[in-house]
């Protein structure tokens, strides 16, 4: 292990932090996340051929039995973090599991990134899952760049889409490009900042347009009419005028504070708009920021090494039964073989064989910097939210549990295995694979998950790893909220009053399990001094 003199290390830190971009893509299924991911990797030179990410997704969707779950986890780890370089920037793209594998991890990944890219289908507009993911981004005012996809289809009017983003997501939408036509009449986009026309040509179609982009001298340039026709040119002029009057001008500060999203229009499958998106993203998206701990904020450029665990993935190699803990480096330089302190358990550990995730493979890591994600082998001692540093004891916050949205009661096929069940459930809860609640009034185990596939995974893992055959029964619960109240007397009165709906989670936190949304709302009204939290920090 080489040790750099202090000044050299801090210089290196400044340089490496400034060029890192760690982000995730948020979207509703089918909006085009996989296609855009693939195109970003292709343009970033991380893969040679389109189709590789797609093939993984197809394999994930093949079947839904346990073998597929197992296989999918093997697959999803390589695509969990995709690292590539673009224009001098080191880009870490973190996968947000979607579709059936949508889970609490999807939310938690968003707490480990510095910004997000939102993909919206131009035909459908803002959809449900995007709203949920946006709510998570809002917890940390994460900056969001938007790509409105599928402009080659007859989609909604661009003004209507911007309005939808503003109303449904509560964020200003500031277009950086503007579409010319849509569907069959889609000609391309006008770059509002550069006064440039970019022509669309469908993938594979040859000779549709002589040039990819043409610079015009503003919107009054007669060349515009020649190039796109006078009808579309006057539509474009009218739209841009309307935008100047009623739209939001792009403001980088508002983007960085999460109040405004710059918007690009394009078609990922046709490679259209992807290059501008990637170039602008690399240029404007934020580098790693300071992160809060229970005691102070830690700047990424601090020389002290620190990192936090935001995800644990089990059984990635079924032959080895290994678990990998994903650590986001928050400050300092990581070097292979370095000794760090695992603060929750007060032990010093050597991280000898960390892995870094490349677009397709895992590779041994020699050195990593703030914003990078490394995987470390975990034999069951690491929990989500755990902090590692090489000096000062710290505990990062901001990587919470999220209120589950689906619930099941667990029953054992063989009651003699209750010890195994309990051990399995507690360990799986620590890993963040599921949440476990024990009602105050009975001996049930209630499982809570953000995505339904989590339940299948848990039953299979209980059987394979803990020899406990569990069955599920439906549970009459629709929402969970963690309870907080500084006033001890009110808390006691509340506990007495709604005891039948209260439970303790795996870390003994009081939780209200609501039978339906109406009851939750009513209880919140009746008990205004009680806080009903949708997230809970790890201890
Ligand atoms: P997801 O990861 O967000 O779920 O979306 P994905 O990229 O898989 O895209 C969903 C569907 O939308 C795919 O079609 C994909 O080809 C299509 N798509 C993506 N970008 C565009 C675009 O710019 N224009 C149009 N017209 N379609 C686009 P599919 O039929 O479900 O899959 P496939 O058979 O094409 O692979």
From TrEMBL:
Binding site for GTP: 27-34, 95-99, 149-152
Primary subcellular site in the record, as a coarse category: cytoplasm
SUPFAM superfamilies, alphabetized: EF-G C-terminal domain-like (SSF54980), P-loop containing nucleoside triphosphate hydrolases (SSF52540), Translation proteins (SSF50447)
Compartment(s): Cytoplasm
Keyword list, A-Z: Cytoplasm, GTP-binding, Nucleotide-binding, Protein biosynthesis
InterPro entries per record: EF-G-like_DII, EFG_III/V, G_TR_CS, P-loop_NTPase, PrfC, RF3_C, RF3_dom_3_sf, RF3_GTP-bd
One Gene Ontology cellular component: cytosol
Domain called Tr-type G: residue spans: 18-289
Molecular function terms, GO-annotated: GTP binding; GTPase activity; translation release factor activity, codon nonspecific; translation release factor activity, codon specific
GO biological process, one term: regulation of translational termination
Family: Belongs to the TRAFAC class translation factor GTPase superfamily. Classic translation factor GTPase family. PrfC subfamily.
PANTHER family the UniProt entry points to: PEPTIDE CHAIN RELEASE FACTOR RF3
Physiological role: Increases the formation of ribosomal termination complexes and stimulates activities of RF-1 and RF-2. It binds guanine nucleotides and has strong preference for UGA stop codons. It may interact directly with the ribosome. The stimulation of RF-1 and RF-2 is significantly reduced by GTP and GDP, but not by GMP.
Protein name: Peptide chain release factor 3
Top-level taxonomy: Bacteria, Pseudomonadati, Thermodesulfobacteriota, Desulfovibrionia, Desulfovibrionales
């Amino acid at each position: 292990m080489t040790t750099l003199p202090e000044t050299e290390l801090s210089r290196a830190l400044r340089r490496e932090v400034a060029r890192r971009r760690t982000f995730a893509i948020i979207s509703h299924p089918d909006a085009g996340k996989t296609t855009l991911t693939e195109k970003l990797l292709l343009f970033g030179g991380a893969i040679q051929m389109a189709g590789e990410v797609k093939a993984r997704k197809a394999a994930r969707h093949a079947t839904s039995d346990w073998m597929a779950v197992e296989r999918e986890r093997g697959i999803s780890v390589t695509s969990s973090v995709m690292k590539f370089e673009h224009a001098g920037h080191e880009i870490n793209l973190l996968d947000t599991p979607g579709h059936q594998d949508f889970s609490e991890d999807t939310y938690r990944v968003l707490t480990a990134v510095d910004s997000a890219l939102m993909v919206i289908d131009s035909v459908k507009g803002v959809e449900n899952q995007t709203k949920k993911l946006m709510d998570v981004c809002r917890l940390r005012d994460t900056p969001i760049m938007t790509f409105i996809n599928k402009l080659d289809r007859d989609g909604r009017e661009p003004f209507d889409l911007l309005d939808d983003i503003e109303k449904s997501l509560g964020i200003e939408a500031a277009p950086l490009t503007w579409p010319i036509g849509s569907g069959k009449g889609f000609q391309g986009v006008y770059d509002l900042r550069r006064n440039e026309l970019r022509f669309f040509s469908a993938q594979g179609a040859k000779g549709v347009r002589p040039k990819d982009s043409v610079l015009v001298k503003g919107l009054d340039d007669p060349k515009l009419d020649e190039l796109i026709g006078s009808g579309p040119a006057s539509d474009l002029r009218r739209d841009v005028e309307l935008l100047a009057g009623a739209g939001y001008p792009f403001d980088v500060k508002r983007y960085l504070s999460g109040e405004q999203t710059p918007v690009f229009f394009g078609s990922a499958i046709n490679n259209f708009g992807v290059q501008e998106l990637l170039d602008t993203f690399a240029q404007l998206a934020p580098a790693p920021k300071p992160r809060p701990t229970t005691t102070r904020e830690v700047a990424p450029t601090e020389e002290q090494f620190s990192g936090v665990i935001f995800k644990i993935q089990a059984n990635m190699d079924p032959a080895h039964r290994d678990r990998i803990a994903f650590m986001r480096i928050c400050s300092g330089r990581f070097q292979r073989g370095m000794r760090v302190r695992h603060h929750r358990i007060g032990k010093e550990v050597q991280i000898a064989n960390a892995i870094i995730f490349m677009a397709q493979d895992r590779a041994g890591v020699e050195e990593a910097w703030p914003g990078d994600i490394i995987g470390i082998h975990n034999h069951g001692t690491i929990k989500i939210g755990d902090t590692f540093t090489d000096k000062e004891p710290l505990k990062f916050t901001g990587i919470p549990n999220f209120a589950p949205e689906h619930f099941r009661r667990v029953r054992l096929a063989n009651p003699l295995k209750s010890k195994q069940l309990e051990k399995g459930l507690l360990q799986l809860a620590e890993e963040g694979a599921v949440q476990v609640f024990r009602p105050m009034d009975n001996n049930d185990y209630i499982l809570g998950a953000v995505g339904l596939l989590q339940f299948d995974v848990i039953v299979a893992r209980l059987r394979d790893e803990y020899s406990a055959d569990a069955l599920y029964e439906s549970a009459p619960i629709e929402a969970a909220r963690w309870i907080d109240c500084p006033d001890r007397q009110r808390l006691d009165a509340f506990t007495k009053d709604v005891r039948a709906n209260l439970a303790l989670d795996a870390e003994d936190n009081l939780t209200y399990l609501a039978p339906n949304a109406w009851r939750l709302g009513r209880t919140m009204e009746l008990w205004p001094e009680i806080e009903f939290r949708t997230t809970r920090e790890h201890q």
